[in-house]
Structures are given as C-alpha cells and as structure tokens.
Amino acid sequence: MTTVGEEIFWENARAVLRDIGMPHLDPAHGAAVDIVRWCLNTRSRPTHHRQVFLEAESPQLLAYLETLAKSGDSAASHALKERIRVRAEFLGGAGHPECARPWLAAIWHALPELVSLGQAILDESKPPLPISAFEVPQPSAATESTETSGGNGGDDDGDKSSGKTGSAGTTAAPQQSPRRLVLPNAPVDGEMTEAEKRALQRTKDADEAAKEDETPEGPEGRDGPGGMKGPGGKR
Which tens digits make up the pLDDT trace of 151-185? Predict the structure, then answer.
C-alpha cells in the first residue's frame, strides 16, 4: 500500500522522464534526477522518500549529496552546477534531440560521474580491514563430510534424478531484488574540484568534532584520572 507521498514521488519521477524525452527508462532514473535537482534548489540533503530511495538504489549518490549538504560550502554546490552546465552545453552542441527540460537531461548525463565521486567518498570513510578479512577460512568438519559424500542425498545418477534434492545446501539463499537505477561506470572528469575536496574535508572535520563531543565524562573521562582537574586545580 503506497502512501500519498510515495505516489507523488513516483509521479514526479515519471514526469522528469517525459521532460527529458526518455519515457522508456525505468522511473528510478527520473527519481534520481529529481532528487539531485531538489537538493540543488533547497541546498539540503535528501530526506524522506528521497533518502529511502537512494539508500536502496544508490548509496554512492546519497553519500555525494549528503557531503555537499553537510559541508555548507556554496563553492561545492557551484562545482556541481558547473558539472551539469558542461553536460548541457555538450548535449546542445552535439545535436542531441531537443527536450522540454535540457537542464534535467544534463543532470541525467552527469549521474554516472556523481556516483563515481560518491564511491570515492565512501571508500575514504571505510575503516581499514582487519587481518582476518584476508585470511582463508578453514573448512569445518561438517563441510568436509558434506563434500566427500557428494552432497546429493543418495541418488548416484546425480543430475539425472527427477525431483530429488541433496541433503545439504539445496535451499537457495534469498537474493536481494536487483537495483532499478543501473548506471554505467564513468571516470570523473578532472576528478574532484578543489571546492568538492574542501566540502569533503569540512564534513570529515565536523564528524570528528562530533565524535569528540560524545566523549563521556566520568572516572576515565574529562574529570577522571589523567583528565582535566576540578575546580581550584585539585583532583
């Protein structure tokens, strides 16, 4: 059961596809374009249905838009607008079919690059992997017994058996539904601009400051051993 907000969200997405002359695309593409447009106009991060959509369809684009919004750097927003403007000029000069909203079409053509920037942001924020992540797991006794027994539950004809399943590993794990917003990998033209780099650094500094503010006070906190002294300089 969809809500009124969700219906409006998807109606706007379909309207974007009509405006850029690409109604054959999945509405997810129109939704992504509309989210970028909305974030530029409001100078804020994706919220509500926009955030839920990007969390499922493109965490990279969400990371990029959130970084821009959290930085508070107007130069970074101008850098995004410049990327889109370059696409708009290219489309106009390359003889692409005209559409009702060329600016939205330029946003769609810039999406792969924005996703690549978002992936770079996510890669920088990931903590280093522990050594155990690179170790080859040793097979357990249960795994070895399953492998040596053939794992097909007793029918020597293997694949020729009709309607019979093995004793282990026959139930397929549920798979996540494929993403609807499929974009080609695109190298970033000129990599990050200086404004975008500053925006990323400001976001990092703000996150680190927030973590420091969350330091609990107590026996081992600011007033505890090795911490700040109490009134009058006495512990």
Answer: 444 444 444 444 444 444 444 444 445 678 877 66
Distances (CA, A) of 198 to 72, 73, 77: 10, 8, 11
Contact 76, 195 (CB under 8 A): yes
Q: How many CA atoms lie within 13 A of 35 on its CB side?
A: 31
Over 217-233, what HEC string results? CCCCCCCCCCCCCCHHH
What's the CA gap between 193 and 67, in Å, rounded?
A: 14
Residue with tokens 């690059």: 113
Task: Give the separation between CA 40 and CA 78, rounded to whole angstroms.
Answer: 9
Other CB atoms within a 10 A radius of the CB of residue 45 amount to 16
99 near 105, Cβ under 8 Å?
yes
Output the pTM of the full model.
0.63
